[in-house]
Fold:
Amino acid sequence: MISCNFARLLGERKLKISDVARDTGINRGTLTRLYYETAERIELDVLDQLCDYFEIELPELLVRTPGKQVPMQQ
Structure:
């Protein structure tokens, strides 16, 4: 399973989704899906922008937990 630390990063920095959307130009809907971990796919340029914005490396944003599976939605 891959999880996203976007919500944690916002909390640590006392930021809102709207702050990141305004500062980066990333669509608010995209950021909301990352926040709630409901995104099914993420554009590489969005990941790159978020890493630059938070001054982090990709493994600090996305974490893979081997063996943990998410149930498939039907």
Notes: The beta strands are 2-4, 62-64.
